[in-house]
Specification:
Layout (H helix, E strand, L loop, with lengths): L1 H12 L16 H26 L9 E3 L2 E5 L5 H11 L7 H14 E5 L5 E8 L9 E9 L8 H15 L4 E7 L3 H9 L3 E6 L7 E7 L11
Parallel strand pairs: 5-6
Antiparallel strand pairs: 1-2, 2-3, 3-4, 4-5, 6-8, 7-8
Helix pairs in contact: 2-4
The chain binds coenzyme A.
Coenzyme A (COA) binds next to β5, α5 and α6.
């Protein structure tokens, strides 16, 4: 009896080893997908930046011009913060992507046109880059053109198009492309006024097509007055 009682006591004192706690293993859920998505995106940006730095290495600086009381010319990299503010205001708060900021910091004087008013404030800009398909054939793409609301409808966008045509044809490029949504008649009108023609119509998911525009360049473009 005493032995039985002693064995029972010992059995109760022996602590059973605790079962190891189950560690939650991270499922390949959204955070992994976000991370891989970010890596893919940054790699694409690095490739775009490298392609553009290479393709634009021999482009000259945009020669300054005047239009009415405005000064038009290539970006002074010191003005980039102001252009970013204008970009956000004109593109639904969207910031200029990181690789483009680097591109324009390094090549802005040749690739980004800025319009300034009398007090030196940037009131409009047009930015260009080489898409994958265009880099080798000398085709540059107009990524965005914008004019501050209070300066619109006096011809500033058209003046920027004309300066870009002169600049890129003098640099020996073969064409400028642009994309415009069908429901944006103002953009289309100023592009057509500068002899852009519709190369392709891409149907949109929302029922509104995007028009691919092209302006061929030749040596006459940089001499023709008013172009
Ligand atoms: C599109 C935009 C750049 C045009 O700038 P702008 O300096 O006002 O353009 P322009 O003064 O050179 O005018 C271009 C043509 O559109 C016409 N136009 C300009 N504003 C207009 C308006 N509100 N209604 C009708 N026609 C208009 C001009 O009369 C001109 O036509 P014309 O050459 O036959 O006379 C400007 O409206 C803008 O910044 N919009 C917001 C950003 C945007 O949508 N960018 C385009 C996407 S890439």
């Amino acid at each position: 009896m005493t032995l039985w009682w002693a064995m029972r006591k010992v059995r109760h004192q022996i602590a059973l080893p605790e079962a190891p706690a189950l560690r939650p293993t991270a499922p390949p859920g959204p955070s992994w997908r976000r991370l891989t998505g970010r890596i893919a995106c940054h790699s694409r940006w690095a490739i775009s930046l490298a392609r553009n730095l290479l393709a634009s290495r021999r482009l000259p600086v945009i020669q300054p011009a005047t239009f009415r009381e405005y000064r038009i010319g290539g970006l002074d990299p010191d003005d980039l913060p102001g252009i970013r503010v204008l970009h956000r205001n004109l593109r639904g708060r969207a910031d200029m992507t990181l690789w483009r900021r680097w591109l324009y910091r390094l090549r802005g004087p040749s690739l980004l046109i800025v319009v300034k008013n009398r007090s030196g404030e940037a009131v409009g800009f047009e930015m260009f880059y080489f898409e994958t398909s265009g880099a080798r054939g000398g085709v540059i793409h107009a990524a965005f053109i914008g004019v501050a609301p209070q300066y619109r409808n006096v011809g500033i966008a058209t003046a920027m198009h004309r300066l870009s045509i002169r600049h890129f044809s003098a640099a020996g490029l073969s064409a400028i492309t642009a994309r415009v949504r069908e429901d944006h008649p103002v953009s289309l009108r100023s592009a057509k006024a500068c002899s852009f023609r519709i190369a392709k119509t891409i149907p949109g998911r929302d029922g509104i097509a995007t028009l691919e525009l092209i302006r061929q360049l030749d040596s006459s473009c940089d001499r023709t007055p008013g172009q």
